[in-house]
């Protein structure tokens, strides 16, 4: 079996590639950096420039599934032009793949795309399932909706389409987790805002295994990829502090301070959604990390 991964060189993609190899699955990948191109029997890189409509069509040879992880990071200052990059790195990329496959006879049968839980409206009390159709009014929700629409167009090519609404991925060295841990380690840890905003988290190992589970079982539709027990910002902060044996002696950091410092990006830490993983569990996926304390212990 051969898959094509976009964003294979990123946090999730790097681990997913390893897991594919363990399962005997070969990986082709599209990269925007020529210096990241490798050419091994089970790991072949191909160049693309989605903004110029440039793509190496050899990337699709014998591929049966595309796992679409490409996307500019959201944790960089949201200037007007960078907001465009966040959006276009998700839509122009999918559109370019679509337009390329539309004009050829393709072996691709399944398009699995990353997506985000930030499509759901911020709430301290609502539990969101995949059935919920309410969409938040934030920039991020707008991005996720456009991203999912770009994925859905592959249905017109008779492909199965899966959208993996991913929570905050907890990993040892990259992503949100080291940024949360750092101030706590230095003794400046404190919950943010009122601390009650939900953080629907997922361990890196689980998100990788979920992609393999979806791939092997041919699952389609929307799946929330978040651990079964989300925590509030305050609980996450306290659990990390407890594990590191650090005191949280500071008061909560007021929301207005974070809005001043981070601008529109402050919604990343001040807002959150309580998201259900039931559909994924009912599909037979067994989480390795159900509760946050063992995940923190593993990562620290
Ligand atoms: N990590 C999380 O907490 C989280 C949560 C929810 C959703 N997701 C989504 O899951 C996907 C994978 O996440 P990740 O954390 O593994 O991402 P990542 O580490 O930031 O990697 C994404 C990859 O996308 C490519 N890329 C970056 N900027 C680009 C741009 N402007 N134009 C085109 N390609 C670009 C890069 O690949 P090349 O350099 O090889 O081109 C990069 O390796 C992303 O779409 C992300 O939004 C992640």
From TrEMBL:
Domain of life: Bacteria
Gene3D superfamilies (alphabetical): NAD(P)-binding Rossmann-like Domain
SUPFAM superfamilies the UniProt entry points to: NAD(P)-binding Rossmann-fold domains
InterPro entries, A to Z: DUF1731, Epimerase_deHydtase, NAD(P)-bd_dom_sf, SDR39U1
Segments forming domain NAD-dependent epimerase/dehydratase: 3-224
Annotated ranges, domain DUF1731: 253-299
Family membership noted in the UniProt record: Belongs to the NAD(P)-dependent epimerase/dehydratase family. SDR39U1 subfamily.
Protein name: TIGR01777 family protein
Originating organism: Marixanthomonas ophiurae
Organism placement in taxonomy: Bacteria, Pseudomonadati, Bacteroidota, Flavobacteriia, Flavobacteriales
